[in-house]
Each structure stands twice: as C-alpha cells, then as structure tokens.
C-alpha cells in the first residue's frame, strides 16, 4: 500500500508540472515587428537561400606557381611523347605527334613570355 501512494503522488506531480513544455529542439521565433516597407529596385530572391550541410570542397589551383605547372606539363610530354623534344621516330600516331608538338611550342612560348 505504501508503494501505491508513492506511484500516484509522482503521477500527480508530473501532471501538475508545466503543460506547455515540449520535447525536442525549440522552434525559432519569427520576428513579428511591423515596419514600413520601402521600395527597392532589387529583384526578390536575388541570392539563393543558403544550404545547410557540409560545404563543398573547393579545389585550390592557385597554390602551385606557373613555373611548377609548366614543368609538370613538360615532364608529361617528355614521358608520353619523347619524339617532340628529341625529333626521333616513335610508335606514336602523326596526329598525336602534331598535337604534342603544338602543346610543346605553346608551353615554351608561354614560359618565355610570362616567366622568362
């Protein structure tokens, strides 16, 4: 009988507590202040609403200076089409040789113009 009294008393206490209390995350309160509207020439929704969540990773292309980029391009050309630099015959098609030669010339011109 003693246990019954304790259980009913806790129920009474729980029912007498604040009835407006809700569980979970509280909602944001909206600003309900009224203000005079001003005329603006901007279009509505000029900027899209910001997305929640993890931002996308941005590739950093400015970290490597130009001379390093050019060196890497030259290494790639030398590795895959060595006939461009040595004028030797290779088992590469004429079209790819021509493309590699044009790229090699462009890289050298850029290097002399901007970095040299």
UniProtKB/TrEMBL annotation:
Residues 1-66 are annotated as: Disordered. Residues 49-58 have a biased composition (Basic residues). Residues 32-43 have a biased composition (Low complexity). Residues 1-19 have a biased composition (Polar residues). It holds the Pfam family AT_hook. Transmembrane segments: none annotated. GO terms for molecular function: DNA binding. This is Uncharacterized protein. The lineage of its organism: Eukaryota, Fungi, Fungi incertae sedis, Mucoromycota, Glomeromycotina.
């Amino acid at each position: 009988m003693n246990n019954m009294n304790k259980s009913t008393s806790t129920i009474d206490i729980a029912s007498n507590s604040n009835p407006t209390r809700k569980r979970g995350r509280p909602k944001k309160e909206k600003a309900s202040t009224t203000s005079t509207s001003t005329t603006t020439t901007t279009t509505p929704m000029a900027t899209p609403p910001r997305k929640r969540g993890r931002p996308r990773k941005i590739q950093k292309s400015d970290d490597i200076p130009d001379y390093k980029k050019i060196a890497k391009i030259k290494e790639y050309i030398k590795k895959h089409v060595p006939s461009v630099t040595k004028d030797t015959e290779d088992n590469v098609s004429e079209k790819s040789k021509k493309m590699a030669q044009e790229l090699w010339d462009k890289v050298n011109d850029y290097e002399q113009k901007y970095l040299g």
